[in-house]
Hints:
Layout: H1 3-17, H2 19-34, H3 36-42, H4 47-90, H5 96-113, E1 122-129, E2 135-143, H6 149-152, E3 162-170
Antiparallel strand pairs: 1-2, 2-3
Helix pairs in contact: 2-3, 4-5
Amino acid sequence: MSIRQFNASLYIKRVRHGFIGRSILRRLRDRCNAGSIGRFWHSQRGVAALEFAIVTPVMMFMVLAMICFGVYLTFLHELQELSSSAARSSVAGLSEAERNSLAQQFVTNFVAQSAILNPNDITVQTAISGSPAMDYSVTVSYNLQNTPIPMLARLISVPVSNISRTSTIEFGGY
Length: 174
């Protein structure tokens, strides 16, 4: 086998196995890596700043949404507890006027001790229901316009106008 035949057979093997194409790609890659494109492509500088810029708005939105829902759920819980306790306290009254007075008095005392409820934003309604008048309902409504919820609710969908909770209790128990 002559040197030419050996070089030709080696060339054919390289072409068959893809070594020629790979070496050309390697040379192109090396040329790109040596230039400004390669330095830009492989540079790690500023990656943390870019990740921070992408992740921060999403995280801030999630934190504000959690705060808004937390405040909203706190108001819902306070009003539910208030209406339930007012209905329980009003059962001690003998007449409808006395029951209304007891419910109003309980709500006034509760709101005076509450850290988050404003007495000017609360409305209390009482009603007797049932054909023999066996149930007594207390409805407590709260206006959310003077709370931080409307400001935060622009970001997410929360019903922000009023919260209303009703508790019904049966007379007697004997």
